[in-house]
Structure formats: C-alpha cells, structure tokens
Design a protein that fits this description.
293 residues, binds NADP nicotinamide-adenine-dinucleotide phosphate, alpha/beta, Rossmann fold, six-stranded parallel beta sheet
C-alpha cells in the first residue's frame, strides 16, 4: 500500500528541524518531504501552485513563517506575503489536492490583557503586526480549505536555531549579571514536544479521528521570562546573577502580550496529546545542548 505523503515546510527552522529528528519513528506510516525556501518560497505566493503540480501531499504541515516579530513592524509586505497570502494559496492548493493542512500559528493572535488561559474559540486581537499576519493566515487557511487544523503555540525553543534558551545560555556564560523581564508570562514550548504532538494528530487522522478547526498546544505550566531564565541557569548549572525588570525598561518596536497562556484542553481531549511540564521539556533540551557542546 502507498503511504500518505506528508510535506513539511520550514525544514531549517526550529519546528521543521525537530520534525526531521522524529520522522524516522513514523516512517512505517508516512512518506515525508521536507522543503526549504529554495523548493517552495512563501515570499512569492504566486509560485506556490507550481509546486503542487508535481507534488500531491495527503498532509501539508506549514512550519515556515516570517518570525522576526520586531522587524515585521517595518517589513510589513514581506511578513504579510509569507504569513498570510502564501498560507491562503497553500490552503487552496491543499483543497484542490484533497490534502489536510496543518497551519502552525501563535499565541500572539491574542492581546494578552486577560489573566486567564485563552481558548481556541476566544476572539483574536493581536497587538503587533506579526500577530496580525498570523491571524490573517489562520483565517485564509480555514476559509480556503475545510480540511484545516490551525495549531497555535507559544514561546518556542529548541537546541537548533535562535531562541530564548540559547540566548540565555550564551549571555549567562559571557556575563556576571543579566536583566530579564518579569511582567510577561506564558507557557514555553519545546519544539520537540510540538513536533511529537503534530505527528500524534496525524496518526489520529490516519486512525479515522479527523477533526478540523483551531487547537492550542504548549508545554504545561505558566511562568514569566524571568522565572524561565532562572530555571535555564539552574538546570545548566551556571552562576550568573539574573535580575527582574519591567517590560517598560526594554521598549521594542513590536508590543508583546502580557499574559500569553493558552488552554490546551481541546488538543488533549480530542487527540489524546498530553503536554509534558515545561520543566521536563527544558531539562531535556538543555541536556541535548550540553551533550552537543
Ligand atoms: N518561535 C516562536 O517563539 C513561536 C511562537 C509561537 C508560534 N510560532 C510559530 O511556530 C512556527 C514555527 O516557528 P519556528 O520557531 O520553527 O520558526 P523559525 O525557527 O524562525 O523558522 C522559520 C522557518 O520558516 C522559513 N521561511 C521563512 N521565510 C520563508 C519563505 N519566504 N519561504 C519558505 N520558507 C521560509 C525559514 O527558512 P530560512 O531558514 O531559509 O529563513 C525557517 O525554516 C511558525 O509558524 C511560527 O509563527 C513560533
């Protein structure tokens, strides 16, 4: 029997890389094709249908995105093309190919003003342009392909790529003291945990549990960036002094939501995905970073 083809974009990004580490375990069920910008450029949405002329996926996991949150405030055209327009075209091509689209999105679609975990059905209200483009991408994906799952996630890190954990480890080795904001709280997500969750969803689909719409996934637990930095320091056994700072001390071009926690109940109940605690996931990532040093 021919195995269903899973196309995964953004192979050089954090999530795309973690998916590549995992797919061996799923090779009995699926064939996988990973793409980089060279094979499929989301910055050029009109070129996307050509890709689908040759490739007929059963599942399309879009991990590619314009993720430079501050730069998006000025590079609006590029951010919109990649995060919204291209997603709309991908969704239409997936609909024509009868393919399921998994569109990865973000907690930044919410304004973060209410201190309670956001549900997938809660109204979006992004506070920065990146969040707006991702929200538009969600809408176009859902409108253009009824077989779409939007999976929103938050505070993503990995041993691969650029992220808060790796920046903290570098700064804590270089400096005696660093300052980290303590008035933004959220749920960190190890990209490996998210990759596993996505492949669990695909297996559920193969087993007939086909449910579409918007879902939330992060590791379990709620902390501030300051608490996260302290945990990184302690788990990596470093001795840098970490001082709490208000966000107002670090003005950035893009505003950030203050409370960025998402309710993952639907993902757990529908797809039996159990998010591990952020501490467990962080320790695993730090162990891998240390082993590679
Ligand atoms: N990072 C976070 O904290 C975070 C939080 C919430 C949600 N998310 C979402 O999670 C998903 C995965 O994020 P990530 O952290 O893995 O992102 P990432 O590490 O920044 O990777 C982004 C990927 O997108 C690719 N890409 C960018 N522009 C492209 C284009 N024009 N055509 C094709 N590919 C392009 C990049 O390729 P190049 O290497 O060639 O640039 C890279 O492989 C994204 O949808 C993101 O919005 C991320």
């Amino acid at each position: 029997m021919v195995k269903p083809l899973v196309v995964i974009t953004g192979k050089s990004g954090q999530l795309g890389w973690e998916l590549q580490q995992l797919v061996k375990e799923y090779s009995g069920h699926f064939n996988f094709l990973f793409t980089a910008r060279e094979e499929l450029d989301l910055g050029n949405p009109s070129s996307i249908p050509q890709f689908f002329e040759k490739i007929k996926p059963a599942y399309f996991i879009n991990c590619a995105a314009y993720t430079a949150v501050d730069k998006a405030e000025t590079e609006k055209e590029s951010a919109y093309a990649i995060n919204a327009e291209a997603v709309g075209v991908i969704a239409r091509c997936c609909a024509d190919a009868n393919a399921v689209l998994v569109q990865v999105s973000t907690d930044y679609v919410f304004n973060g003003n209410e201190p309670s975990p956001r549900k997938p059905t809660d109204a979006a209200d992004p506070v920065n342009y990146y969040g707006y483009t991702k929200w538009m991408g969600e809408k176009l994906a859902l409108e253009n392909n009824p077989q779409t799952l939007v999976i929103r996630t938050s505070w993503v890190y990995s041993e691969h790529g650029h992220n808060f954990v790796k920046t903290m480890l570098r700064l804590m080795r270089e400096r005696e003291e660093i300052k980290v904001v303590n008035d933004q709280v959220g749920s960190p997500t190890y990209a490996a945990s998210l990759a596993e969750a996505i492949l669990t969803v695909l297996m559920a689909f193969e087993n007939g549990n086909r449910q579409y719409g918007v879902f939330h996934f992060s590791n379990a637990g709620v902390i501030s960036w300051y608490d996260f930095a302290l945990a990184i320091r302690d788990m990596a056994q470093l001795s840098c002094c970490v001082l709490p700072q208000p966000s107002s001390a670090y003005p950035t071009p893009a505003k950030r939501p203050f409370y960025s926690v998402m309710d993952t109940t639907a993902m757990q109940e529908i797809f039996s995905v159990k998010p591990v605690a952020w501490q467990t996931a962080l320790q695993e990532c730090i162990n891998k970073i240390k082993a590679a040093d």
